[in-house]
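Kindly draft a sequence, keeping tokens residue-aligned:
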Amino acid sequence: MPVQVGEISWQQTPAAVLLSLPLRGVCARDADVFCTESYLKVNFPPFLFEAFLYAPIDDANSKAKIGNDMILFTLYKKEPIMWETLCVSGVDKEMMRTIREKSILQAQERAKETTEAAAAAKREDQRYALSVMMKIEEEERKKIEDMKENERRKATKELEVWKKCQREAEEQKRIQRKEKCQQKQAKEEREKAKPKSFTRSSASSHRPPQGRNSENIFSEDDSIPAPRSVGSIKISFTPRVFPTALRESQVAEEEEWLCKQAEARRAMNTDIPEFCDLKEEEKNPDWLKEKGNKLFATENYLAAVNAYNLAIRLSNKIPLLYLNRAACHLKLKNLHKAIEDSSKALELLTPPVADNANARMKAHIRRGTAFCQLELYVEGLQDYEAALKIDPSNTVVQNDAEKIRDIIQGTELKSS
């Protein structure tokens, strides 16, 4: 049963009432204050105070200050008169109940009006924001249209200038052709006007005298040599692997390079279309997987990657090959390749059943580890949470996921 607070003190002026209500251990978080124009209630368990005020007050502007184990009310009167008492006298239980219900209804109506006013203001703000956005979009659209129109006019103007230049060039060429034709016709007319009684003898009789500066190269006694006999020339080329000429290359260095390339192709398993140079056991993906596992156990991660590469070339549908190669890439800090191999293993480990649950969990953990080493902690946490869905009782994964959450929270706090 609540304890009624009776020790109160109040003072008044023609405009306001100052009410002091002592409450032990009161704080703003736990105190429930309800005030209307004729009713005041303070609920601070186990204490309860209520007052049926002598005259109406302006509850919208009235104030309450909580601190130092008391609540200090400043109640502004609606009418500037002096009250005889703080509470109205002669109030029975029925009237109290009526006043309480009326006060609650008034508070509900006011809250409803406030909510509706806030909703109306929000709708008005949204309409205003929408109109502003439409205006901005309209201005932007008009700006773009103006830019397009300016570009179109500029292109049209440039096209007209180009066409004018082309016409001028064509006109210039036509004039030049016309002039050439006229010159050719004039030359032909001059040739026709010359006398045609010119013979060899007269030409020889009018031949200039031979001297040191007028020597005749071909005389009548000169004879033209006979043409050469027909023959064929055979050319033999040196067989070359490289397209360069033999004089421009070094055979020894090139042969050594070819041998190294062949060894590299055999080591990286990129030259095995027919698997002609492999042993019988090397053609078995399971044998290669075991070989890679042994190399991984001896920390020879590069050789293990080569073994898994060859096994994948032989059979690319075994998810454990990609899963084990992802572990090697993690050791070698090839983080992006580890993510790719883990994702490929998860693609092959479908549908998710109980038999492949352990492999799926390892794939999520390895991909999450690679993400975290790349400082992509959110993506890494997603993979760890996926692994926990597969095995919720794994304490190691739980601890690692918690550490990642702490890192993410610390990063957010630093950024904020």
